[in-house]
Amino acid sequence: MPIPAGTKLDSFEIISPVGAGGMGEVYRARDSVLKRDVAIKVLPEYWSRDPDRLRRFEVEAQAAATLNHPNVISIFHVGRYEGSPYIVTELLQGETLRERLRHGAMPLREVLDIGGSIAQGLAAAHAAGVVHRDLKPENIFLTKDGRVKLLDFGLAKFDPVASESGSTATVQQVTNPGHVLGTVGYMSPEQVRGRPADTRSDIFALGVILYEMVTGRPAFRKETSAETMSAILKEDPPAISQHSSTTPPGLQRVIARCLTKNAEQRFQHASDVGFALEALSDTSTGPFAVGQQEKRSGERKLMRFGIAVAVISLAALAFYWWQRPPAVPVVQAVTQITDDGQPKGVFNSLQTDGMRLYFNEGRRGDLQIAQVAVTGGQVSKIPTPLIDAQPGGVAPDGSFLAVLQGGAAPPGHPLWKVPLPTGDPVRLGNYKGQDVSVTPDGRIMVSYESDLTIVDADGSNPRTVISGIDAWVGNPAMSPDGKQIAFSYYGHKGGVSIYLANSDGSGLREIATHPEGFCCPAWTPDSRYLLFETRGTVMQNIWYLPMRRSWWERRVEPRKLTALPLSFHDSTPNPRDAKAVFAIGTKERGELVRLDLKTKQFVPFLGGISAKDVVFSRDGKWVAYLAFPELTLWRSRSDGSDRLQLTHSMLLEGIGFSPDGKTIVYRGNQNLSAVSLDGGQPTTLVKDREPWFIDWSPDGSQIVFATPGAFNFMDLASGKRTSVPSQYDYLWGARWIGDDKLVAAPASRSGFKLLDLKTHTWSDWAIDPNPNPISRWGVSPDHQYLYYATSGADPQLMRVRVGENRAEPVVSLKDFYFAMFIQFNGADEWISFAPDGSPLLTRDKGSQEIYALTVRWP
Fold this sequence. Notes:
The chain is α+β, with helices and mostly antiparallel strands. Helix 8 (249-258) runs antiparallel to helix 9. The relative contact order is 0.06.
């Protein structure tokens, strides 16, 4: 029953009904103490008998009361009237965002201002540990004086993990796990699945709201609720550009990141969304507006002063043309092509003829050639007797794949041609290469060390077009018009960049370089753009460089094409569709696990952190590791407490504790450096060509590190250094196994070598032969056992006692994938160990799938 006007509720006098609000009836009232008008929401008596509605009403009051922020509605008082609870809030005058959206899409300035205010309100709620869980336009109020207020926290929950304040708020969970809670169309994928919602669920809802404000259309709307929820789980919203051609690319990227299905790939904090929108707001009235003012001023002067001012105007326009940024390509949509959960991280294996995609799946020793339609669908294998056949190019007519048996990497592998859709592979002469590709006219380019040779499809008529440069030639790609060849220049003195030459090898020059290296060029089908990617960075991105310009266009430096939550590599333009670029998208994450040698089970270690290269101090009290995938150096106590980040730049494998446990040695910036366990400024131990820290001697008196072609020993007391030639190409790491012996492995990963430190001679360790390559290995802390992992179709973790020649299997690794397989094909070199000698491995918890990027080119 409505409450009559004049009724007193404590110090508040009802004036008139306003309408319904969430679960209650809303009245305008007068605060007789503070002499102000307020709003009162009352839960009807028949609803207050419903325990669930009553709890939600109480949650709304408790949640809002914990917050004090200009973008969250203020709670003044809570009471009861004839058995019905009520909440007294500030009185708002204006309209909800839903009412505003009935007029269609909103201007950019309003979108940025309102979106930023929503993000700020959410950030305040999240900081207090409150997750809204029902964010939608109906629960966002726009006041007449331009303020934005978040309403209706009836479905809120308190998330102590999200709380930044340490407050003692007592908002209670009011739903059970597995229950779908929220409003269809604005729920996150995890809410649709009935999983617990956290702050990132609110960020997804914010993305849906931003999309609707920009386009005037819901992001997910189907005929039924079930279909809408299915779309939230499986579909991306229509590209914003279909509805609004003026929406800035930056705002489109912000919305796309909010709407990512995987919560780990969204913005992690609402404040980050607010900052991104604020940055866009700052730039939305920047150079463009200034340019328009200059233009209007020039027109007025033209009218006023005639021909003389026209000359000035032309000069001003020329200056404006020179200063304005060039048009840039925009990724309008990202569509997932594969979804089979198999590793696809082998670099440079993704190829397409415009109809199908060809790529590697699996692990070294058992890599398979897989295929899928460019529109997606079932992934299938292409049978071949070749082991680790890596596709490097596909014929323009789709009749064959050019492959390297054993993978694309130095020192070179046999060149084969695999017929499509099926057929027996054909060995092409005696050609070997570290990379291969197919030209637009169906010939084959194969690079071997510093040479690049072009042969006919049957292996005849070889012609070497590049030879004798101070680098390895990698990833050759001929432009579709046949006029130029781009390739990766792997300099012998370090570094990798993009080089360009004419198709006859003349005109060789560098065109793109990056501190972390550029590699793997690919041409768009019109030869206008060259795509390539970064290497050695945590998040890999695709970059572009315009290659064809009119006389009035200025040269521009390489720029990023992608800046999304996923890493992208192997960019492969569709030769039949200039707008489509295929790439492997990866999300890298690992889980540190320990092998229980008794039960042969892998169990999380140190809480299952995403880390690798774990080393313990000799007393077992401290542990150091590389965070994954960032590869920054951290230390903590052996129980995982007292964590401290020691470096902020990306490192590679090879870290170790000093014998006294006070210093950690690592490789960084081409040096061997040492940093105190307490942090601080690192000191340089060795400055040499690519020094690689390997191990500390058992007596703690010296370290061993590798440089190309040699192992080096440094006495720490005297600083004296001695070197022993490796006698093997690409020798892969070493470990002490006694006071006078080291064990090492060649790059072929087919066995182990022993170095006698007394005689400086090498010999084979005659362990039982295993036909599959070794993927990683390590020596137990007591120097009693050598552990190694094999690859292939039936990978095993093996163990051999030092001084013996008989290896024994420890556990099958058939269902175990190593983290960092994605980037380095299994080159996560070391097996780590817990203080009790249990092997530590980093299990892959990430994903690798193929995506299609729809690109709008200028």
